[in-house]
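lol forgot to send this yesterday, sorry. C-alpha cells for the thing we talked abt
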C-alpha cells in the first residue's frame, strides 16, 4: 500500500497498528478497506483507491474477538475493517478481528445477537429533552454502549425547546455514573462544540427515532449530509429518516456512523454493561452484610439503606433488576440454542459415520 493510499484511508481510521496487522493479507494480494455500509450481500468499502462496491456473500470470518463466538458468524457490518480481493467484482475475503462491537438482541426475537456497528470508539447515546428525559431508555442504551467496549457519551438534544436544560441534564447524569452527559441544541449551536470535543475516533449515534440523531450528525459534519424529518406532534415520535448505517469522515478527524432509530433495544450478553451502567448500585451492594443479598428485606442491606436515606432512587434499583433479568433470560436462551446446535452437529456426524460403515460393509461383501 503506497503512502498516498495510506493517507487516504487514514481518514477512515487506518493507522500503523492496523497496517502491521494487515501484513499477511497484503502478502496474499489483498488490499485493506473499511466497510462504509452493507446492503443485501454487497458492501461499500473505502480503500486507498476509492470506494468499491464489493461482494460479501462468500466471506470467511476470523474470530470476532470481543464480539464473542455467537457474533463471529454474522455478516460484516458498518465499521468493520476488511481485506478486499480486487477484481470484477471486488470481493471481501476476510474481516480483521473487531476491537469493539455494539450488539443488541436480534430484532427477530431469536437467541442470536445483532451487531449494529464495529470498531467503535465512542457511542453517542442520543435522547431528546422534550417531554422529559426517559431515564430507563438512557440506562438501557448505556448498558449496550458500555458492553461494547467503547466509551459512552449521553447527548441530550433539543435543549432549546425546554425551560431548564441544565436541571434535566443533571437528572440524567445521576442515572449515568461514569459517563459524560451533555445538553445540546443543533438549532442554535448550544453544546455542539462540547459534543465535538467529546465525540472522538469512530463515533456511532444510537437512540430512538425522532431523537435528533441525524440533525446532530449534520452539526458534527458541518454540512447537511444526513436526511432529517419532523417529529409527530401527537406522540413525539419521528420517522426513520436514516434507513441504513453509514460511515462518514468527520471534518476534524474521526468518522461518524449514523444509525436508524431503535424501537427495540434488547440486551444480548451485556452483563458487564449492566454492571457499569449501575456502578452506584453495584458499589452499594458490595457493602451489604450478606454476599447473596437480594436487596429486599435482608438485614444490613446497604442498597435499601441508601433508598431509605434518599441517596438512591427506588426506580434505579427496579431498572437494575429488570435489565439483569432480561440479560439472564437471553443468556439462558443462547446457551440452550448452542447446546441444541452442538447436539445437532453430533447427530449429523453420527449419521454420516453410520452411512460410511454401511457403504464399507457393502463393498466388503
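and heres what i got for the seq, position by position
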Amino acid at each position: 500500500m503506497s503512502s498516498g493510499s495510506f493517507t487516504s484511508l487514514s481518514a477512515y481510521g487506518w493507522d500503523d497498528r492496523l497496517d502491521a496487522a494487515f501484513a499477511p493479507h497484503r502478502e496474499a494480494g489483498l488490499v485493506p478497506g473499511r466497510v462504509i455500509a452493507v446492503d443485501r450481500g454487497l458492501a461499500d468499502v473505502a480503500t486507498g483507491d476509492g470506494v468499491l462496491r464489493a461482494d460479501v456473500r462468500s466471506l470467511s470470518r476470523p474470530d470476532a474477538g470481543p464480539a464473542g463466538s455467537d457474533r463471529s458468524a454474522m455478516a460484516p457490518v458498518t465499521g468493520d475493517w476488511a481485506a478486499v480481493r480486487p477484481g470484477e467484482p471486488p470481493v471481501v475475503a476476510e474481516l480483521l478481528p473487531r476491537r469493539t462491537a455494539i450488539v443488541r438482541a436480534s430484532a427477530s426475537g431469536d437467541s442470536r445477537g445483532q451487531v449494529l456497528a464495529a470498531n467503535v470508539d465512542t457511542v453517542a447515546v442520543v435522547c431528546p429533552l422534550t417531554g422529559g428525559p426517559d431515564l430507563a431508555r438512557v440506562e438501557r442504551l448505556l448498558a449496550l454502549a458500555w458492553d461494547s467496549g467503547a466509551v459512552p457519551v449521553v447527548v441530550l438534544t433539543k435543549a432549546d425547546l425546554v425551560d431548564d436544560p441544565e436541571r434535566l441534564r443533571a437528572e440524567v447524569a445521576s442515572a449515568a455514573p461514569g459517563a459524560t452527559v451533555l445538553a445540546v441544541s443543533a438549532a442554535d449551536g448550544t453544546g455542539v462544540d462540547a459534543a465535538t470535543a467529546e465525540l472522538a475516533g469512530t463515533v456511532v449515534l444510537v437512540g430512538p427515532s425522532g431523537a435528533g440523531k441525524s440533525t446532530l450528525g449534520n452539526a458534527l459534519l458541518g454540512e447537511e449530509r444526513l436526511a432529517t424529518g419532523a417529529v409527530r406532534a401527537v406522540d413525539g415520535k419521528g420517522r426513520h429518516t436514516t434507513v441504513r448505517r453509514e460511515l462518514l469522515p468527520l471534518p476534524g478527524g474521526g468518522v461518524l456512523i449514523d444509525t436508524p432509530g431503535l424501537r427495540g433495544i434488547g440486551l444480548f450478553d451485556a452483563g458487564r454493561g449492566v454492571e457499569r451502567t449501575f456502578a452506584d448500585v453495584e458499589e452499594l451492594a458490595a457493602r451489604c452484610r450478606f454476599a447473596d443479598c437480594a436487596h429486599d428485606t435482608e438485614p444490613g442491606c446497604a442498597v435499601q439503606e441508601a433508598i431509605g436515606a434518599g441517596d438512591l432512587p427506588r426506580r434505579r434499583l427496579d431498572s437494575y433488576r429488570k435489565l439483569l433479568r432480561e440479560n439472564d433470560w437471553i443468556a439462558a436462551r443462547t446457551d440452550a440454542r448452542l447446546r441444541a446446535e452442538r447436539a445437532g452437529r453430533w447427530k449429523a456426524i453420527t449419521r454420516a459415520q453410520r452411512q460410511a460403515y454401511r457403504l464399507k460393509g457393502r463393498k466388503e461383501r
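The CA atoms of residues 32 and 83 lie 5 Å apart. anyway ping me if u want another try
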